[in-house]
Amino acid sequence: MMSSRSVGASKPIPQWLPDETIFSLISRYHFLSGNRLASTTNLSLFGNKKSGWQHDFPSHLSELCRRTQGVLGSGIDLCLDRTIIPFYLPLQEHASRKSALASLMDQPEGMLKYRLGIVTSRFRANHPLKACVACMAGDLANFGTPYWHRTHQFPGVWVCPQHGNLLRQATVKSTGVERFGWVLPRNEQLCGPVATELGDASARSLSRLAAMVEGWTSLPVGTHLSPETLSRTYKSALPETIAHETPGRRFEWAEAYRMTLSPLRAIPELAGLPETQRQASLQLDRWLFGPRGNTHPLRHLSLILWLFPDWQTFWQTYLGSASSPAQIEHAASMSSRSVDPRQARLLHLLTRGNSATAAAAELGIDVGTAIAWAAKHGISTARRAKVLKPEVLSNLLLDLQGGIDKTVAAQRNGVSFQVVTRLLRSEVGLQKAWHAKRFSEDQARARSAWLELATSAPGIGVTALRARQPWAYAWLYRNDRDWLSDQARHFRLPRTSGAAGRIDWAARDGTLADEVLRVASEISAATRSNHVALWQLYQVIPELKAKLGALARLPLTQAAIEGVTRSRRRQTTLSRLI
Predict the structure, then answer these.
(1) DSSP 262
(2) Is the pLDDT score of 323 beyond 60?
(3) Are strands 130-131 and 2-8 parallel, antiparallel or unpaired?
(4) 379 near 347, Cβ under 8 Å?
(5) Hey, how many other C-beta atoms are within 10 angstroms of the C-beta on 114?
(6) Three-state DSSP class for 2?
(7) Cβ atoms within 10 Å, residue 266
(8) Which of helix, strand or coil describes residue 375?
(9) 372: phi > 0 → left, psi -120 to 50 → alpha, else beta; which?
(10) Which helix H or strand E contains 65, and what residues bound it?
(11) What gap in Å lies between CA 460 and CA 469, rounded to an integer?
(12) Cβ(371)–Cβ(425) under 8 Å?
């Protein structure tokens, strides 16, 4: 089917097919137009020979709309309805969302995949084209051609929602083969995501994950999922309530989380999900108990998959958590400790005119306790003049408001330590002001010490800095962790622990080298040739291309590649092949 409008008189624009991506429609246009070169299509539709060819995040969509006279919709419509960008937007702030959409509609602004956190996510950044063989057959019968369905292209979707089939991935575009070309699904250019059959557990988990992704990408335009609200939502669905949280309980949660995700890790794209209990525990600590920053949506979708039976249950829980965050935060903070019911009775007696002494006697508590409870709720009680002289009291209050140590304040004013403690508990707002002042001073002292050391010894790493200034690191880690993390990034301190430090390069090298030799053997048998090209290898092993820059750490893999890509005439160097 063709639109009545066109770029040129002899080149009509095809009409949209159901759930079609912009890359798919232009691929159809490319073949229907008879253009021999992809650059000819690019120049015709995007005004530039090197624009618009990306299958996941195309650019210059505004120019496309102008050249097609708006028949395909507006630029923002194409972004939100015909690309996979909506998958990444819910976790982005308004400015980041606006910048991402601008990169698709106009000239790309820097590395979009890096800015969205895709490159550093361990979930791959190539977004392989995917297709369902049943959909392809149906599309061929109904529309005369197979095409790329947007629903299939979202990260985490490996099962067709309509047919339940495992999707097959293209061996072109994301692998670097035909990187700048326009392609449609062809059986000979598709392969399974894994070499072996998936078990029932993996199939069920992948179907559930695909359903979660469908809900995620169907959120209203402009929806922002707050890390804090997500944390509250997850906590409310934990197998045990926060009130019974213990270190052992957290390990149980981590193991349950890991086991839920284990069937998904069979898919290479999802291999970045936690593999060990420690990795799972780190994920829970970050996104349930200390939410901060941003991450790949698959991290949150994996938590939703673990904690909720379906998307609708999660979404209703999220809306409930977001409706009254102050009450929810208060409930969470109070759940691990009980509130003495006598406090409410004390407040009632004091507001009716009873003295602290009389109220304490009626409730059977110490007068000091009654005064402290009252001060905690903002109620001042009459002070007995014989306890402290006015001038001593005035000086002591000034000292404590200034954050002076309790022992120093007691010695300076000639009173006991217990008197200072009682005053802090009984004077409305004094204890809060004292703690705030001391926190501010300790924070300034720790930050100053850390900055001075980091500036004098840049690049030595967090572990080395920590050894030189242990008290500052300990205080900042416990009380000012976000600032500490920001400073580590600011000074570009190398990571001495974490995922990068835990990589077993020897094991990775052996596994990848074996895979190269296996695939090369299969290619040689199929082509009846002893020569295998590098592009043929990473067409079957997509992760190989990403490792070419790290071959210095993968000597077995490098040797395997050089061995199987040896030319019939002479052995070429790997650098020339790349």
Answers:
(1) G
(2) no
(3) unpaired
(4) yes
(5) 11
(6) strand
(7) 19
(8) helix
(9) alpha
(10) helix 61-67
(11) 13
(12) yes
